[in-house]
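Handout, section B. The chain below has 73 residues.
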Amino acid sequence: MTFTHVEMGEAVFGIAPGHAEVWAMLRIRQDEHMANLCAAAEALVNKIAGEHHLPARCGGSSGLISAMAERSG
């Protein structure tokens, strides 16, 4: 996995970011296993976001996964 982009809030002190976005490139030797790898990555994103009570959206194709989480309030 290669992280290709990360964005977290504004560059200020004392404030937790209200928006975060992480992009990662998944690589695999055999194409037929890519769908399973993408599904596992999306499940992990949703599990971690759920543990922290954050809504998360995943999207991607051809091994590029982007995940976004936003904190309300």
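Note. The longest strand covers residues 2-8. Compare this with the example in section A.
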